[in-house]
Please model this.
Amino acid sequence: GLIPRAKLLLTIGGTFFVGFGPLILVTVASFSALYLVRLLFFLALIA
Model:
């Protein structure tokens, strides 16, 4: 029926998210670090 299929999709989606979670976190972290460094450099430049 519909319920088992939804549960299966949820399980697959969950494991997919858990598998790619660290990758997403690393990407977001590196981008924010880069942004912060550039922001601080810019602030140091105009100060």
Notes: The CA atoms of residues 27 and 33 lie 10 Å apart.
